Amino acid sequence: MSDILEILLTANFWAAALRIATPLIFGVLGALLCERAGVLNLGIEGIFTAGAMAGWMAVWLGAGLWGGVLVAALAGAAFGLVHAILTVPLGLSQHVSGIGVTLFATSLSYYTYRTALPDVSSPPRIEAFQPADIPYLSDLPFLGPALFQQTPLTFLALAFVVVVAFVLYRTPLGLAIRAVGDNPSAIEAQGLSVTLLRMGTVVAGSALMALGGAFLTMSAFDAFFFNMVNGRGWICIALTVFASWRPGKALIGALLFGAFDAFQVRLQTEVGGVVPGQVFLMMPYLLSIAALVVVARKADYPRAMLKPYFRGQR
Amino acid sequence: MIRFEPRENVSPARRIGAPVAAALVALLLASLPIAAAGAPVLEAYLLMARGAFGSVFAFSELLARATPLILTGLAAAVAFRARLWNIGGEGQLYAGALAAVAVGTGAISAPPALLIPLVVLAGAFAGGMMMLLPTLLKVRLGADEVVTTLLLNFVVILAVQMMLEGPMKDPMGMGWPQSEPMLDEAMLPKLLERMRVHSGLILALVMAIAVHVFLKRTVWGFEIRAVGENPEAARHAGIPVTATFVRVGLLSGALAGLAGVSEVAGLKGYLTADLSPGFGYTGIVVAMLAGLSPLGVVFAALFIAGIFVGADSMSRAIGVSNYLADLVVATSLICVLVSGLFVRFRIRLVTPKARKADA
User: Residue A58, class by beta-carbon neighbours within 10 Å (0-12 exposed, 13-18 middle, 19+ buried)?
Assistant: First the structure.
């Protein structure tokens, strides 16, 4: 028991938790934006992959790290636009379109990578983002290493929590986004375009998701690997329900998830000989299912989610 | 301004023509990535066609590749008919393969006439059981089955790895994480001498016909279709919606489990953690291309298998990455989704003048 407490009280542990949470924060923010506007975006897994690949490749070609971040966001936005066109004006099945976008974005990323690098045995590395060294803050006891020695993309993720929350709850645009996912005919009655609002939100949300992927190749690692996203996108969809579509709760959910994951990694080093490693690797997925099940009964899905809207329809 | 007008009656020609056109468009679009890779486009297509149909060997490869796709395609089609979004075909496939190996590597010794059915049933049962939890979570607690089935895929594959590195590891496997080989009496017989096509294909075709008859001619099949069309109306009509979801979930999981049996007992002979290159996910595309029709699944699976086998062979010849096949498969899913619009609606360009006249 005291061992467990000891793990929980180290700054290193919380630094790891925040690091694991970072791509999920981007992903859940992106997913909750799309769903708030009434569109389930199962393209997320592929958009993560595309963001990871495009961002990494841009840096590898010499665009600079922030150039890579921008390219990743644009790639995410492009695939988001495909999903938006299919599901909003065309009103096609959001489930099937999302799976289609995931397969499309994933295969296009893999094909591009293989075509650009036909015969590399080990993936080429880039100079990834380094942990920040902020005067004074990074040297604080406990908080310094846990919070202020992260890479810039983690700070960006935290900033986006505030930005998304502000936009959703404090601006007319946010009010419109929330309304279009609940009651689109009210938006049309206001003289606003349901189509444009939904499409714009899906594109923006998808760009955010792609940043989660970019974190993987530009901060967590410094290269692109096949299957590196490994279900993180799907985990975000579960966490979005867990977070009741709220940015603040999304942060808490992602951090809790990161803490569990960091904890099991440390537990693994303690009892690794006895319990097979795969048991620990299963944890994130089982945990996500548990998170979904815990809230499922009282989950308050945006009311018009999954429902296409056509003009003039009541 | 574009207007969608619902069609009253859809001709069968249109219903079949739309996915065929979508598949052709997806195939044509592949010329873009081929050209982007700097390869000769026409030659690439020729090589793909030859790789898929050019010889008895090529055709045997195509049929062997189509076999698991028919089964995972049926799994997706039957579930989607009830709007049960089972995206867990990949995990159910592995569960089926694991069960087949557990039964077929020496736990029971029996003549083939007894052992093969046992192996097949074990795989179907394991696949079905994989769907029980997600379906119950959906009907009892409202937990979205898309997410639970997707996440379980990862859990099952890790469980398979765990078994293959632990209790089910082949002691003679030179340290590789693979199961012991299946007993000869547990293997599905080959259909052609020295070729890979095996009687799993017959199993898949029989299942396609059986599912077709089941959906069309039985009460449970009717209930599945009714729930898929409108669950509320079905409930009011006295259809047991919960039981229907559970039935269709079990059936869908069992079909995907059979795909695992077929791969392990028909083709590989032992289990590794890379048994399936995504057959479960590709089954979704097969089902959509087939318009969720069980008989259509057979043709869609042959098309998709042709793309994979052809692209593999073309890739070996001129070095275009065989991820091209995945790209064509993904594109055909998007194309067939859009083509559905042309089936369901009459699409009209409406000029402002005509709109005024309408009003």
Answer: buried
Q: Measure CA A304 to chain center.
A: 23
Nearest alpha carbon to residue B231 among B242, B220, B221, B247: B242
* Contacts with B321 (C-beta within 8 Å, 6 or more apart), sequence order: A110, A111, A114, A115, A118, B37, B315
Residue of B83, B150, B289, B332 to mutate when probing chain A, most A C-beta within 10 A = B150
| Cα distance between residue B277 and residue B273, in whole Å | 10
Q: Which two tokens stand for residue B349?
A: 């360009």
Q: Do B147 and A234 touch (CB under 8 A)?
A: yes
Residue B174: enclosing H or E segment and its boundaries?
A: none
Res A135: pLDDT: 80
B155 inside 8 A of chain A by CB = yes
Question: pLDDT tens per residue, chain B (359 residues)?
Answer: 677 788 878 888 888 899 999 999 999 999 999 999 999 999 999 999 999 999 999 999 999 999 999 999 999 999 999 999 999 999 999 999 999 999 999 888 888 889 999 999 999 999 999 999 999 999 999 999 999 999 999 999 999 999 999 888 988 888 888 999 999 999 999 998 888 999 999 999 999 999 999 999 999 999 999 999 988 899 999 999 999 999 999 999 999 999 999 999 999 999 999 999 999 999 999 999 999 999 999 999 999 999 999 999 999 999 899 999 999 999 999 999 999 988 888 887 776 665 555 54
In 10 A of CB B34, how many CB atoms? Answer: 23
List residues bridging with B198 in a β-sheet: B190
**What tokens appear for A195 in the block?**
């189509």
Point out which residues pair with B3 in neighbouring strands: B348
Closest CA to A26 of A92, A95, A76, A78: A76
Structure-block tokens of residue B303: 């098309």
Q: Which H or E run contains A64?
A: none
Residue A80, SS3? helix
Q: Searching chain A, which residue's CA lies closest to the CA of residue B347?
A: A90
Residue B179 forms beta bridges with which residues? Answer: B169
Evaluated on CA atoms A59, A213, A229, A134, the torsion sign reads positive
pTM of structure: 0.94
Nearest alpha carbon to residue A46 among A175, A196, A234: A234
**Interface probe with A: pick from B155, B163, B276, B339, most Cβ of A within 10 Å:** B155
* 3-state SS assignment for residue B243: helix
Name the stretches of chain A with pLDDT < 50: 314
Q: Residue A297: its pLDDT value, please?
A: 84
Which residue is closest to B32 within chain A, CA to CA?
A108
Contact between chains at A107 and B144 (C-beta distance less than 8 A): no
The gap from C-alpha A305 to its chain's centroid, in whole angstroms, comes to: 19
Place of tokens 């760009």: A207
Q: Count CB atoms within 10 A of the CB of residue A313.
A: 10
What letter represents residue B281's amino acid?
A: Y
Q: Which amino acid is at B238?
A: G
Which pLDDT does position A269 carry in this prediction?
77
Cα dist. A79→A24, A143, B213 in Å? 19, 38, 39
**Residue ranges of B 231-260 with Cβ closer than 8 A to chain A:** none
Domains, chain A: 2-117+131-296 (1.10.3470)
Min Cα distance A165 → chain B (Å) is 25
Residue from A96, A230, A279, A307 whose CB has the most chain B CBs within 10 Å, to mutate: A96
